[in-house]
Amino acid sequence: MTSRRTTYPSGKRPLKTLERVFSKAGIGSRTEARSWIGAGRVSVNGKVVRNPDHWVDLDRDRITLDGKPLAQREKIYILLYKPKGYLTTYHDPEGRPTVYDLLADVDRWVIPVGRLDQDTSGLLLLTNDTQFAEGIANPDRKVPKTYLVKASTRLSDDQLRQLREGVILSDGPTRPAVVTRLRDSARYTFIEVTIEEGRNRQVRRMLEAVGSKVLKLVRTSIGPLAIGGLTIGGWRRLTGPEVRALEGGRPPKAVRG
Question: Most buried among 66, 114, 138, 240, using CB within 10 Å?
C-alpha cells in the first residue's frame, strides 16, 4: 500500500488527490472513487495505488481504472423540478426517495449544486462539472434564488420590512432580500422571496426570526432559470446559452425553463 503523504505539495503544477481526479473528470463521486481505489482497481503509472489521498500530477501521471485510461466525460448540466418528500442525496440509509430516483435516464454521475431540504420543492441544478458547481454555490457570486412562500400566519408590513432589510440568524445576519407580498388569505400570507445566499434552511429560519413559519416552500428560479413548463419530478438539460448566462450571473427569469 502506498504510504500516506502528510504534507501539501508545493509548486504550481496541477496536483490533485487521486480521489478528486475522478470527481473533477465527472466520472464518479469521491465516495465512489475511494471505493474503487481501496479495491485496487486504480493504477498510477502502472502501479496500483490504494491511498485515495495520493497526490498525482495531471500533466505527467497516467491514471487508469480497471486498466483503462481515464477520459474526461462530456459536461452535463441538468435542471430538475424536485418534488416535496425527496432528499438531495445519493443514498438514504432509511430508504426514503432521493432526487437520483428521478434521474434514472441520466447516464453519468452528477452532483447537486446546493441543496433543497426534504420538505421543499422546486428547481435544483445537477452537473458533473465540479468547477461550475463550486462557482454557482459560492456565496460571493451572489447568484439570486427565488422562492414562493406560504407563511403560517398573516405577515404585517413591518415583518416584511425586517425580511427585506435582513434578520439575525444563529449563523449571523442575512443579506438584504427582495420580498414581495403576493396575497393574503384569512389566515396566511403568500410572499415571493429572492435571496443571494445559500445557508441551510435559510428562508425557513428567516420566517421564524420574524415570528412566523413556512408552511410551503417552492424554489421558482435560480439565477436566469425559471420553472417555465417543467413539470414536478421532470428534468431537462440546460442549453449552452443558459449555462453561460448562469456563469455570467444575469438577473433571474431572463431565460425560461
Answer: 114
